[in-house]
Amino acid sequence: MVIDEHYIPSFKPAKTFVDKIKKSEVVKTNAVKREAEAKQALKEA
């Protein structure tokens, strides 16, 4: 069986959702924590 190329829609979040994520203090805090953890892991490796 051959499946020809076809349209696959991509996910695009709503603008209001994107705006809330960009302004979210929780997201920013978690990003800072993960960045610090990643840097520490690189130092230990």
3D structure, described in words:
With 45 residues, this protein is mainly α. It has a domain at 15-44. Helix content is 64%, strand content 0%. It is built from two helices and no strands. It has helices at residues 15-23, 25-44. The model has no long low-confidence stretch (mean pLDDT 88).
Write the layout of secondary structure elements.
Elements: H1 15-23, H2 25-44
Strand runs, count: 0
Approximate shape: flat
Please bin the fraction of helical residues: 55-70%
Oligomeric grouping of the chains: single chain
Largest sheet descriptor = none
Low-pLDDT residue intervals, each spanning 5 or more residues: none
Average pLDDT over all residues: 88
Rg from Cα: 19 Å
Q: What's the number of helices?
A: 2
Distance N to C terminus = 48 Å
The class by helix and strand makeup works out as mainly alpha
Strand content: under 5%
Order of helices and strands: HH
Descriptive key words:
about 45 residues, mainly alpha, flat
In short:
This protein is an all-alpha fold and 45 residues long. It has a domain at 15-44.
